[in-house]
Amino acid sequence: MKILAISDTHGCFERFYKACKWEKPDVVLFSGDCSSDALEMELIFPEIKFFIVRGNCDYDDYKTDDYMTVELEGKRIFLTHGHIYGVKRDYSRIEEKGYEVNADIVVFGHTHNPDYVDTFRRQDDEKDKVITLFNPGAILNNSYGVIEIEKGKKVKFTHKNLD
Predict the structure, then answer these.
(1) DSSP letter at 108?
(2) pTM for this one?
(3) Which helix (H) or strand (E) holds 50?
(4) β-strands 67-72, 2-6: how paired?
(5) Do residues 25 and 103 make contact, with C-beta atoms less than 8 angstroms apart?
(6) 45-64: string of b/e by CB count within 10 Å (b at 16+)?
(7) Facing residues of 116 across strands?
(8) Mean pLDDT across the chain, nearest whole number?
(9) Where is 106: in which H helix or E strand?
(10) Which of 29, 47, 58, 145 could form a disulfide with 136 if both were Cys (CB 3.0 to 4.6 A apart)?
(11) pLDDT digit string (tens) for 101-138?
């Protein structure tokens, strides 16, 4: 499964459209700021499944939530913008939320900077739980992410630029 991770369009609809056309994803995870762009894109690409959350700049969006958890190809993904978890300061709160909802992957935006971090935590049963924190960056700055999941197998994360 190919997943397009997009954040922070801030009205750069054409860049978002271009990424969808280039990548031809099965799913789009939109992590906020100009969620109206994602809601419109969903109409243009009805063959793509969209999961959309709002960001701190989505003042008039009453349709979408601040976060959601979705299951794709056996992976549990927590999707949020990140502002309510203080991601510009550090990732401790968003990481904690990821463990709380038993996520495998946390996708977020807000910082406008692409990032990828694997976190590890020893569970009660003495096994390590790994969560990947993935920020695709801002499509405003030509940055987006692609997540490829082989069912029950590996996950590949890639940061890309429209340039």
Answers:
(1) -
(2) 0.94
(3) strand 49-53
(4) unpaired
(5) no
(6) eeebbbbbbbbebbeebeeb
(7) 134
(8) 94
(9) strand 105-107
(10) 145
(11) 999 999 999 999 999 999 877 666 666 778 999 999 99
Amino acid at 156: K
CB atoms near residue 65 (< 10 Å): 11
Which residues on adjacent β-strands are paired with residue 75? 72
Contact 28, 145 (CB under 8 A): no
In angstroms, the CA 59 to CA 43 distance is 21
Q: Report which residue type is found at 32.
A: G
- By three-state DSSP, how is residue 139 classified? helix
Q: Which two tokens stand for residue 163?
A: 């340039």
Helices (H), the chain: 13-23, 35-44, 92-100
Query: What are 89's two structure tokens?
Result: 């300061």
The conformational region for residue 8 under phi > 0 = left, psi -120 to 50 = alpha, else beta, is: left
**Average pLDDT, consecutive stretches of 10 residues, N- to C-terminus, the chain (163 residues):** 97 96 98 95 97 95 95 96 97 95 96 93 69 96 96 89 90
The tokens for 112 are 């406008």
Q: SS3 of 2, please?
A: strand
In the block, residue with structure tokens 């801030």: 10
d(CA 77, CA 112): 20
